[in-house]
Design brief:
By secondary structure, this protein is of the alpha+beta class. Helix content is about 35%, strand content about 30%. It has ten helices and 13 strands. The chain has helices at about 75-85, 110-125, 130-140, 145-150, 185-195, 205-215, 220-225, 230-235, 240-250, 270-285, and strands at about 5-25, 30-50, 55-60, 90-100, 155, 160-165, 170-175, 225, 255, 265-270, 290-295, 300-305, 305-309. Strands 1, 2, 3, 4, 5, 6, 8, 12 and 13 form a nine-stranded mixed beta sheet that branches. Helix 1 crosses helix 3 (about 130-140), helix 2 crosses helix 3 and helix 5 packs across helix 8.
């Protein structure tokens, strides 16, 4: 079978419907109990046969990419290198990332790029790795990378890298209010530690949220969204609190920061309601606004060579 010379993979943005943060572990990470959902904002990673590993980044106008590294520290390059080392691959790949997910926005865009690169290079190099193997490599790269491979709605445990798919009913629509200025996840965790000290309970998933997902109850889900990092993020960026309140005034069923922020999420009844809420937020001039459904699939191959898969 002829191997492709170019492979393209899309991977979705991640949001946390619930993000419970527990005590710091000996390895420096915090124990997490979270419910992930993948929503329909995507990065697209295209890999082409090359002698060396290189990366280039392009983006929609609303997504600034000045802070995305273009060297070996880029997580997509690290993903390709890890896969190559595992299989003794000496070939390279030219990696091109087209970003539709906010950078440093709390929506795991870098993790999506890593997951997409793992899958794309696996196809490019003809490795045919079992999904379990790719998930193991993904966990080495970052806490959110395994979920970017899995997609859908899922429970995350450990430091977030242990992913258990969750069967849910129906579709949810989310309005995303982005920020021109990203936030550092480590800085938000440091603020969380400063606010809470070492006496932090083990994280748990809210029963109300799980029941809302089982019954596809949008109103109940909106009222049970939770994020233990939100108070810390709002201390660093108080204006985000005003943005969340504006979304509630625009009739969103729920308003929450995405992960460590600064992207703000607003849960809507359906697409038409999302259009209405997004329009209201745009009129306020708070920042770039988009909307997307969830849950959606995880990373998947969309093109190999010049043909659709």
């Amino acid at each position: 079978m002829t191997r492709p010379t170019t492979v393209a993979v899309t991977a979705p943005a991640k949001i946390n419907l619930s993000l419970g943060v527990g005590p710091r572990r000996p390895d420096g990470f915090h124990a997490l109990a979270t419910v992930y959902q993948a929503i329909g904002l995507y990065d697209r990673v295209t890999v082409t046969m090359a002698d060396d590993l290189t990366v280039a980044v392009h983006a929609e106008a609303r997504v600034p990419v000045d802070d995305v590294p273009l060297d070996g520290t880029n997580i997509a390059v690290r993903a390709a290198r890890l896969l190559a080392e595992q299989h003794g691959i000496e070939r390279g790949a030219a990696i091109t990332i087209d970003k539709g997910i906010p950078v440093a926005g709390g929506m795991a865009g870098g993790s999506a790029d890593a997951a997409a690169t793992l899958l794309a290079c696996d196809h490019l190099w003809g490795l045919e790795s079992p999904k379990e193997h790719l998930l193991e490599l993904a966990a080495e790269l970052g806490s959110d990378v395994p979920f970017a491979l899995v997609g859908g709605t899922a429970i995350g445990s450990g430091r977030g890298e242990t992913v258990t798919p969750l069967m849910t009913l129906g579709e949810y629509w989310w309005v995303v209010l982005e920020s021109a200025q990203g936030m550092s996840t480590p800085a938000v965790y440091r603020e969380f530690d400063a606010m809470n000290g070492v006496d932090v309970d083990a994280p748990e998933l809210p029963d109300e949220l799980m029941q809302a997902l089982r019954g596809h109850d949008v109103a109940a889900l909106g009222s049970s969204l939770s994020n233990d990092l939100q108070d810390a993020a709002l201390r660093l960026r108080p204006e985000l609190g005003r943005a969340l309140e504006q979304g509630r005034l625009e009739s969103a069923y729920g308003a929450i920061l995405s992960g460590s922020g600064p992207s703000c999420l607003f849960l809507c009844e359906g697409r038409s309601h999302a259009v209405q809420v997004a329009g209201g937020l745009r009129a306020e001039g708070l920042g770039p606004v988009s909307f997307a459904p969830g849950p959606v699939h995880g990373a998947r191959v969309v093109v190999a060579d010049n043909g659709a898969v």
